[in-house]
Each structure stands twice: as C-alpha cells, then as structure tokens.
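Collaborator request, handled under Task 6.
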Amino acid sequence: MCQKRRVVIRVVLFALLGLLVELFFTALGSLLKGNINFSGHSSPWMMLDYGILGLLVGPMAAVMKGKRVPLLLRAVVYMLGIFLVEYVSGRIFVAFGIHIWDYSHLPLNLHGQITLTYAPYWYALGLGLELLNKWIDACAATLAGGFTAEELTALAAARTGAAEGCGCGCDAGKD
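Structure tokens returned to the collaborator:
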C-alpha cells in the first residue's frame, strides 16, 4: 500500500509543482513584455500533464541510465516526451471543448498544440528532470511512509553519520 501511496503523492507533487512553474514562467513572459503586474496564467487541467510526467520520468530514467545513455541525449528524449504528452493531451482537451493553449500563432507549430519554438525550454527542463524526480521521489517516499519529524531527524543523522541535527552542519535539532 505504501508504494501505491508513494506513486499517488509523486503524481500530485509533480502536478502542483508543474502548475506553479507554469504560472511563474508565464508571469515572467508577461513581465518581459512590459506587464509590471507580473501575472501568469495556467489551468488546473494542466496538472494532468504534469502528473503524467511524474509517472513517466522515473522508469524512463532507469531504462536510459541502464543503457548508459548520456545526460544530454536523455534530455532530448525527455524533451520529445514532453512534446508528445503536450500534443496528445492538447488534442484530447480540444476534442472535449477545452482550449487551454493555442500555439497556432507561433511558427513551427503542429495543429496549434505544440511548437518547436519551445524546444529549448523543454530541453532545459529535460536536463533538470532527473534531479527534480529524485527530490520529488524522496518527498513522496517520506510522505508515504508517514514519518514523524523525530524519525526524519534520526534517519538524516544515520545517513550522514551525525549524532544529532539534520545533517547539514547547522544547529537544527540540537539541544
């Protein structure tokens, strides 16, 4: 049961973080266009895309690392995966009358659902995706395990060999 809960938590964490990143990304875009309100936009429907990403990254990384695929090439695979999820989900959304994005005004677009002009952003995201996956998975494992603050402190101490504290060298948790 703990593993299923961990997967659900991973999906939720990826979904929420993705939504937050998208809000900041679009807000930054509006700021660069002169909108000093720094307002971004997204849709809760996008959490489906980010949640799917959370399901796929771990297994994809394991397979590619097992085959010793270099990180720069793995980032290309992640970028293509992002394009695939974005395209398929966009087409499904439109089929149900949900119009979250429309890239038809941008060059190199396919049915207004994806555009190659975003390739550098998706590639950059792909570069950091494995590290992000590692962090989110650690959070999900912790939350799924139902650890108390004291148990987490003990685990951190055991992991770092420290007798007390969080293990980072600060005074947290020391009496």
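The cover message to the collaborator said: "The chain has one domain: 2-160. The CA atoms of residues 83 and 118 lie 9 Å apart. Please let us know whether this matches your experimental observations."
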